[in-house]
Amino acid sequence: MAERENFDLAHISAVEILTPKFEESLWFFKDLLAMREVARIGDSAYLRCWDEYETYSIKLTASDTNGVGRTMLRATSPEALQRRVAAIEDTGYGEGWKDPEVGIGEYYEFQDPDEHLFGIYYDTELYQADEQDRPALKNQAARYPGYGVNARRLDHINYLASDVNVTGDFWDQVMKARETEQVELDAGGYAARWFRFAQKSYDVVYSDDWTGERGRFHHLAFATDTREDILKAADFFLEEGVYIEYGPYKHAINQTFFLYVWEPGGNRIEFANAGARLI
């Protein structure tokens, strides 16, 4: 049972991004990242990258401020979903079952110890490409867009936490994610912790929030095919007037080649290429 529990989470499926500049942020994700809008409901646009099998991966929501809303996680099976829900309920962080939404079935909503909001589910809808988006290859969900950054898929999210130790323990002990990297302080405890769900080296990261605030995030990352895509992206963002915060450069953690930029709503977005480093 313990070994099986370590594979209850499949991947991060979607992240809600809050923006006070909705139209400008939508331009960033659609025109610059080459994401496709698949739905518009209320104040939210649902977008996807070209090589993702589910309906969407970004829920862009108009808001008075920037930041992260709810992050969705897919379980590996109905049984895995029930195991994680039972473990979450034992902590008191659960908020109950919610009705199906765009592209997914019933899901269970909960918070982590730092008040970030999550949903976990299993039932999903595979993306069905229309004539305009139909790929030449049968084993590809959508056609390669061929413009902008050509973001391939959502890769990971790095949250800020007022207590990295407690929040990291939640993912280790309750969610059964596996820790792959960490920044350990000489004084004890951790400044950052990295967790993976499957073979990819990390899916969820927690970094120390020196302000002591709760529920914030550091960045959201998209995967690219190659390092060269990131170098091209840097030139592309420079021409489009997008603020480049850092990079292109290489992280020591996971040895990821990366670029940090700020989208118009004020959220930090990373483009990452980890090469062949799998666990």
From TrEMBL:
<protein>
    <submittedName>
        <fullName>VOC family protein</fullName>
    </submittedName>
</protein>
<dbReference type="InterPro" id="IPR029068">
    <property type="entry name" value="Glyas_Bleomycin-R_OHBP_Dase"/>
</dbReference>
<dbReference type="Pfam" id="PF00903">
    <property type="entry name" value="Glyoxalase"/>
</dbReference>
<feature type="domain" description="VOC">
    <location>
        <begin position="11"/>
        <end position="123"/>
    </location>
</feature>
<feature type="domain" description="VOC">
    <location>
        <begin position="153"/>
        <end position="274"/>
    </location>
</feature>
<dbReference type="InterPro" id="IPR037523">
    <property type="entry name" value="VOC_core"/>
</dbReference>
<dbReference type="InterPro" id="IPR004360">
    <property type="entry name" value="Glyas_Fos-R_dOase_dom"/>
</dbReference>
